[in-house]
């Protein structure tokens, strides 16, 4: 049973501990037990997380510096799990006062008046996390505090009495983790107000200079691009943030796939109805990787991991819509379903001038084409590398089929049986897919469509948009 008075708390042998020592102690325990400190964060095991562990062991304030969609805020929120489950506070205190070390005027007066009978309550670690998004309109009153004339009138106190102060978010975060997201967006004069809090531990409010040794673990996040576009972190503030930790995007497609599958919000009733083959999750992640390397996409802005997550959700929804329209009970995602994820791509990439000239949709299609080509060349012969006349062209039958003025149309809402029928009608397509990708029906259909899309990238076929789908034909058919 937890103590309810200061006297009971003293009897338990409780000793105050700073939040940074608390984080350090609990981190040491987890490291000794081999337990992860940031559950669900993938790809940072050998880079970001060790840096963070060193910062916590050093009792540092932390700045996560990285492009958008690199789990900066997610990591900050998970740090709450390194706090003790409950801590004692003086009942009624607005600054989470430790009963053994009261900080506010209210708590000091209460302890002086009631002694060991001072009421104590317990604060859960989930209530010890405070997050503020830095925006240009954030004021010193929001963060530090201001004089409250209503409080002065209600308590009949003169403005010279410190009890008329209404404390801001930072003092109220005493003994908590305080996170400021997008720090460069905070006006320089507001950043200056953080100096003393970070270093000396005192605050100034409308002429009041209060010596409040606030016990706060600060975590800041920032995007490098912000230093040149929207603002900057002023140098004296950076100097007071002891550890700057660089984040990054997933380094491999396999890690990116794990992140997407873990983060995507798929309706439970669709999880067993819609199947997304591995090849499609690979292609989807490769689109994001291609975007980060594309000359049309602004590299300084970055390509968020949310692109892949949103695209995966759209892919499943594209299949779900098709099943509803065709009254089918279950289905498998197709490559042509990627036309349904274009809105998730165009909304999450910042284009440079050349990209704007091409247009968002054309850039999205270019990224898709590069991903298709990459995967295709892992399994199939490169059409451009075939020796002329020295070996049999494996794509000869396929090209001859389209040379005879045949057209393959794949509407997005095509029923499964019609989809299979149209692909199998293309001469040589199924045999080619089975030769290089195996004879399992599910894989065969996907690789049959992969071949068609890939040949477009090698200019052996042309691809034209339909009102609700795509069509493939010989590239010279329009000429003749």
Overview of the molecule:
With 480 residues, this protein is an alpha/beta fold. The protein folds into three domains: 6-246, P-loop containing nucleotide triphosphate hydrolases (Rossmann fold); 250-379, Orthogonal Bundle (Helicase, Ruva Protein, domain 3), CATH 1.10.8; 389-480. The protein is built from 21 helices and 16 strands. The strands form six sheets. Strands 4-7-10-1-11 form a five-stranded parallel β-sheet, covered by helices on one side. Strands 14-16-15 form a three-stranded antiparallel β-sheet. A hairpin with a 2-residue loop joins strand 15 (462-466) and strand 16 (469-473). The protein is elongated. The protein starts with 5 loop residues before the first helix and ends in a 7-residue tail after the last strand. The model has no long low-confidence stretch (mean pLDDT 89).
The name of the CATH superfamily of the largest domain reads P-loop containing nucleotide triphosphate hydrolases
Order of neighbouring strands in the sheet with most strands:
4-7-10-1-11
**Fraction of helical residues:** 40-55%
State the name of the first-level CATH class of the largest domain: Alpha Beta
Determine the N-to-C terminus distance: 88 Å
State the CATH topology of the largest domain.
Answer: Rossmann fold
CATH architecture classification name of the largest domain = 3-Layer(aba) Sandwich
Show unreliable segments: none
How much of the polypeptide forms β-strand, as a percent range?
5-15%
Radius of gyration: 30 Å
Number of domains: 3
**Number of DSSP E strands:** 16
């Amino acid at each position: 049973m937890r103590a309810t008075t200061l006297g009971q708390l003293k009897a338990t042998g409780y000793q105050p501990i700073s939040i940074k020592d608390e984080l350090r102690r609990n981190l040491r325990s987890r490291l000794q037990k081999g337990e992860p400190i940031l559950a669900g964060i993938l790809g940072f095991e050998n880079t970001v997380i060790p840096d963070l562990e060193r910062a916590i062991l050093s009792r540092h304030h932390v700045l996560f510096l990285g492009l958008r969609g690199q789990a900066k805020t997610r990591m900050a929120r998970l740090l709450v799990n390194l706090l003790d489950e409950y801590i004692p506070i003086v009942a009624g205190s607005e600054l989470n006062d430790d009963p053994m070390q009261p900080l506010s005027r209210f708590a000091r007066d209460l302890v002086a008046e009631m002694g060991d009978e001072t009421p104590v309550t317990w604060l859960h670690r989930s209530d010890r996390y405070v997050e503020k998004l830095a925006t240009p309109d954030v004021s010193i009153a929001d963060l530090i505090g201001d004089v409250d004339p209503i409080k002065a009138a209600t308590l009949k106190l003169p403005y010279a009495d410190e009890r008329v102060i209404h404390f801001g978010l930072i003092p109220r975060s005493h003994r908590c983790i305080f996170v400021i997201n997008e720090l460069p967006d905070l006006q320089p004069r507001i950043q200056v107000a953080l100096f003393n809090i970070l270093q000396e531990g005192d605050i100034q409010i409308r002429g009041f200079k209060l010596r409040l040794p606030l016990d706060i673990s600060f975590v800041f996040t920032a995007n490098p691009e912000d230093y040149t576009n929207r603002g900057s972190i002023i140098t004296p503030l950076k100097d007071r943030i002891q550890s700057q930790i660089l984040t990054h995007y997933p380094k491999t497609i396999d890690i990116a796939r794990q992140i997407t599958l873990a983060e995507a919000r798929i309706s439970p009733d669709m999880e067993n109805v819609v199947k997304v083959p591995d090849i499609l999750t690979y292609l989807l992640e490769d689109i994001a990787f291609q975007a980060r390397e594309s000359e049309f996409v602004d590299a300084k802005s970055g390509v968020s991991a949310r692109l892949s997550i949103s695209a995966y959700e759209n892919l499943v929804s594209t299949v779900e819509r098709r099943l509803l329209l065709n009254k089918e009970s279950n289905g498998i995602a197709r490559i042509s379903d990627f036309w349904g994820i274009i809105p998730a791509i165009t909304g999450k990439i910042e284009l440079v001038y050349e990209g704007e000239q091409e247009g968002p949709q054309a850039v999205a299609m270019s990224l898709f084409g590069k991903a298709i080509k990459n995967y295709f060349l892992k399994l199939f012969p490169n059409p451009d590398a075939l020796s002329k006349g020295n070996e049999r062209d494996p794509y000869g039958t396929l090209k001859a089929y389209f040379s005879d003025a045949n057209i393959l149309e794949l509407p997005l809402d095509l029923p499964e049986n019609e989809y299979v029928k149209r692909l199998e009608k293309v001469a040589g397509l199924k045999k080619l897919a089975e030769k290089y990708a195996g004879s399992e029906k599910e894989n065969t259909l996907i690789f049959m469509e992969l071949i068609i899309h890939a040949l477009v990238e090698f200019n052996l076929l042309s691809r034209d948009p339909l009102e609700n789908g795509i069509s493939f034909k010989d590239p010279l058919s329009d000429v003749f």
